[in-house]
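Thread: "does anyone have the structure for this chain?"

Original post by V.I.:
We have the sequence but no experimental structure in hand. Need at least a predicted one for the grant figures.
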Amino acid sequence: MKNKDSRRGSILIMMTLIMIVAAVYVTTALFDVRGTVDQERLYKTQKQMSYLQVAIQDYRIDNPSRQLSALSELLSQPSSMSSCFVQYSSTYTTVQYPQGWCGPYIDPSLFLGDTTAYQEDAWGTTISLSASSSSGVYTYTLQSCGENLTCGDSDDITLSF
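Reply from O.Q.:
Generated one for you, tokens below.
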């Protein structure tokens, strides 16, 4: 009888150790997966901000003296802007360049038809746009608050151009 009790005790100890090792392994794996998901969100947000940068630069080519005031102007024409037209210059050579709103500057189908998704980062928060002007040339800054959803700290993602 004593022999059976000692075997049961040994089996219980072994099962407990196996469960502890399994729990440590699962916990470690979950942290690795979480880290991978965070890296994917960071990468996705950086790619999205690069896409917005190209769209803003296209807008700036068409409207060099007009400040983009909101990301929504990349998708739909503001009522205060004229439609796209071609400007000619120089009496000796004909140069054509677009002026006015020649958009849309982004393709909403890339965001599964959601007409506001392009304005959000991978954590679901709005990407902010700010602009400053020096001698009539606008500099833009896009900012995501990052993983902790709080702007103004070290995990912010900022793109200035």
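V.I.: this helps a lot. Residues 2-76+106-160 form one domain.
O.Q.: and The radius of gyration is 28 Å.
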